[in-house]
Amino acid sequence: MSDVVNLDPPPRRSRRTRDGPTTHEKTFMVIVVAFTIISFAVNCLHHEDIGRMGNSGMDHHPGIIMGRNSRRKKLVSVNRAPDKNKADKASIARINSKAKPEATMLKVSEKAAGDHSLGELKCSAYGGPDDEIAAKEMMYWSDIPSDAEYVSPFKRSNEAKGGSVQYMTFEPDGGGWNNIRMAMETVVVMAHAMGRTLVMPPAQGMYLLRKDRGKQNTDFSFADFFHLETLSNEHEGLDIITTEEFLTKVAMTGQLRNKTTGEMAFPPGNRTKWDGQDLKPYKAYMRDVIHTPLWSPGSCLAAFPASDEAQDVTDLHDMHSVIKGEGSFNFDQYLDKPTPVDSKPIDRMRETIAGRHELCIYDAKMQQEPVLHFMCYHKKRVRLLTHYYSFLFFEDWKQSLWEHRFVRDHLRYLDELHCAAARVVTELRNIAKKDMESNHDGAFDTFHIRRGDFQYKETRIEADELYQRSKAYIPEGSVLYIATDEKKKEFFNVLKDHYKVYFLDDFKHLFKGLNTNYYGMLDQLIASRGRTFVGTFHSTFTGYINRVRGYHAEKDKLEGYELGHIQSYYFVPDNQMESMRQYRPVRRPFFSREFPVSWRDIDKGIDAL
Fold first, then answer.
1. How many helices (H) and strands (E) does the chain have?
2. CA–CA gap between residue 175 and residue 454 (Å, rounded)
3. How far is CA 92 from CA 47, 265, 282, 554, in A?
4. Parallel, antiparallel, or unpaired: how do β-strands 500-502 and 479-484 relate?
5. Fewer CB under 10 Å: which end of the chain, C or N?
6. d(C-alpha 373, C-alpha 368), whole Å
7. Which of these ranges, 4-18, 224-238, 339-353, 457-471, has the smallest mean pLDDT?
8. What is the pLDDT of residue 59?
9. How distant, in Å, are the alpha carbons of 3, 105, 170, 298, 405 from that of 591?
10. What's the angle, vertex CA 30, arms to CA 27 and CA 34, rounded to 5?
11. Strands (E), 406-489
């Protein structure tokens, strides 16, 4: 059974109420205290002994590759450096023998492993619909074998030099799911671009994804939403491991040092498995021992040179200087006039810079860091609340488009969610066909109406105004699917007077047993298939719906696809209502909406890569 279906915790032990512990329990408590004292003493000896070790850099090993079975990666063989002395090795072994950590595979559906391919969608194992119907309805991605073989220039260079494995760790965003997803996409793209092994954070509770805690799983890893095992398996240029694997192989072998004292540092309590734990001590530790770039998407553009040659870094600085000298950013010059995707780097940077005055360049100094840790730390104004394409700039246009395709084709929701959405979409089309004989395609329309704890109060309008602002786009009497967090469905009575309205709740019989914390993702996939979509500006939930619609429009060559147009609108504000019907360059605040650069003409140059 897939991991997205009810994952109930083990039964809790019953509690007994009595006056005090039994004799056996007292004995056990004494043993525990004694063991704690001994462990503390051993730990002190451990830190004293291995503190004499030199900082020899990261351990030379090819990393743990998860579930290799197809398109198997050809790992570069790198010799291990000899042990400096046996005492150091023995000291480390003492700690590791107590921790007894085991490498942990990313938790994914069993159906996601084995012969699973990200280039297809097969729903027969998930209750339908027919594979052909599901693929036609939901598949916006492509299977491009040459893309799977692409390796970033920094990874190629590091392997050619016989360098050590480099890592990237990160902290998930502290907001809602789509903010978390956006930051994760950005980090995954950076990890590939830098040629670093990506360390996925521990499974943890996520904001607004804690429904029915105690009855179903509410501690999530990213592998609970995306096919990360297959992703790592299929791509030559990207390895993904768990936090436990990283801490076991790097931290517990004495390869991390406190940045202030220079002393060797180990995880709090020598813990390597942090799934479901309080992560404050873990985050503090990672920040203390790993280089933490203070890259802020609102103030700087993260730029990746075409190679590790110093001249490429100089070229990026020179481009930026020229653009700054030209004066303020002219947004209007790009309206329905996109810069060609294969333009010179300076022309592409000019459109992407969006008024930012700084470049955050992956330069030689950062390239030498064995581990990078990207924080979500509001006190330092460091948060990756942005779209990867609005923050990351690549000097090589072919690499830039590869990263766009990588996100489209491989960072997608689990098959089980796409299949469940396909069943609902099929049912909606059947309803629409029966309702109107001339509606041969079963076209239906969709809304996303954000009501809950949304901070942008100007978007919180009443139902009659929602109708007035959208009626020009939605034919009277249409079948209308509404994705919403509004619990009082009578709020929508005004809309029911004009449309045949349906909600996710009306189709629960089509996805029985699905963890309710996935309902938002299911809503997104269903809403993305509407003929016309009207959403909520500033909402990253609406944003992702529009990006998926953009992928479909590009694949199906819908009207206006050449300029990235999609049949989507906003209820408010007035100046944004029809903004998705026009090509617009990225602009701050970047999270408020998605931009056509993420889906428009991104298949160009595949053969030239």
1. 19, 12
2. 11
3. 9, 12, 20, 54
4. parallel
5. N
6. 14
7. 4-18
8. 39
9. 30, 32, 19, 10, 20
10. 140
11. 445-449, 479-484
What's the one-letter identity of residue 13? R
AA letter at 188: V
**Mean pLDDT over all residues of the chain?**
85
pLDDT band at 43 (very low <50, low <70, confident <90, very high): very low
Which pLDDT band, with edges at 50, 70 and 90, does 27 fall under? low
**Pick from 334, 302, 338: nearest CA to 320:** 302
* Terminal-residue alpha carbon distance, the chain: 39
Nearest to 209 by CA among 520, 566, 465: 520
Residue type, 63: G
Model confidence, pTM: 0.83
Residues 6+ apart with CB under 8 A from 139: 121
The string of pLDDT tens digits covering residues 537-552 is: 999 999 999 999 999 9
Rounded to whole angstroms, how far apart are CA atoms 590 and 264?
40
CB neighbour list of residue 600: distance below 8 Å, 6 or more residues apart: 338, 341, 550, 554, 561, 562, 563, 564, 583
User: Residue written as tokens 């309008």?
Assistant: 461
CB distance 368 to 424 below 8 Å: no
Q: Look up tokens 């209308």; give the residue.
A: 480
Calpha distance 112→230 (Å, rounded): 7
Average pLDDT over residues 240-257: 98
Length of the chain: 609
Per-position b or e across 540-574, b if 16+ CB within 10 A of its CB = bbbbbbbbbbbbbbbbeeeebbeebbbbbbbbbee
Q: What would the pLDDT profile of 566-587 be if each residue is shown by its tens digit?
A: 999 999 999 999 999 999 999 9
Q: How far is CA 58 from the centre of its chain?
A: 26
Question: d(Cα 478, Cα 491) in Å, to the nearest integer?
Answer: 19
Q: Which helix (H) or strand (E) holds 242?
A: strand 240-242
Which residues does residue 358 pair with via DSSP β-bridges, in sequence order? 300
Cα–Cα distance between 138 and 528 in angstroms, integer?
9
Q: How high is the pLDDT of residue 452?
A: 85
Least confident of 271-275, 338-342, 375-379, 421-425: 375-379
